[in-house]
Amino acid sequence: MRLEDKVAIVTGGSQGIGQAICHAYGREGAKVAVVNARKPELGAAVAEKIRAGGGTARAYQCDVSRRDQVRKLVEDVTGAWGTVDILVSNAGIMINKPVEDYTEDDWDRTVDTNLKGAFLLVQAVLPVMKAKRSGKIVLMASIAATHAFPNAVPYCASKAGVWIMAKALCAEVAKFGINVNSISPGNTATPLNEHLQRDPEFVKLMQSYTPTGRAYLSTDEVAGAAVFLASEEARAIHGADVIVDDGWCAM
Ligand SMILES: NC(=O)c1ccc[n+]([C@@H]2O[C@H](COP(=O)([O-])OP(=O)(O)OC[C@H]3O[C@@H](n4cnc5c(N)ncnc54)[C@H](OP(=O)(O)O)[C@@H]3O)[C@@H](O)[C@H]2O)c1
To answer: What is the pLDDT of residue 143?
Structure first.
């Protein structure tokens, strides 16, 4: 097992990509803190399923955009398991509208969840990781960090922020034995983009630009990269963005 006894915090673990990462980490022997905010029953179900499969997991309710809640999350996890070895900042939201239609609240919620949330989580875990001079931090970016999509201005901007934040953090904390990297998934079938999965034009567009011909990745395919980046095998990888997109960006 590649993550045996490692303590991992995975935000957005209740569904979609985060859920797949929680299960993959559980299978690799990690103690998994499954974190989400709005539907705690879903996070609890993921943790229960990991335990039922012989793994170790607990569910935590935390809004990543709230500094007090993020601090408490890290305190609770270290209180339960003694440390934090791995942080996967994956919680995210996407609101699709023409640019003029966004409210200030749409912008704030998107940037606060996707970008500020990642920042607050990193700030909270760094003292623990620095003290033991080791840690793995994986930030969930997106192909939308570096490639433009219409009707997604706050989302693209927030993900570009996450993408460069991973590199800026690497410049600062690699010397403490902490690996910070990001993952940029391509189009992955999850509740986040259910509305786009029903849009034949969007599906056709994605298929036509993907060399494999697929419109959607599976969440397990993204989780594989998250296992790798959290493992010892990735010890020399700092400040990288791992693109998991079926070749979409290459086109
Ligand atoms: N799906 C894709 O095609 C795709 C592509 C590239 C990048 N990504 C990125 O991958 C990550 C996961 O996306 P997904 O598609 O799996 O999304 P998803 O299915 O909608 O899941 C999002 C997760 O984030 C949690 N969450 C949302 N706001 C939160 C908050 N304020 N505090 C804590 N948890 C919060 C949700 O739980 P609650 O709602 O219950 O809080 C849920 O667990 C996101 O960062 C997304 O931007 C996705």
So the answer is: 98
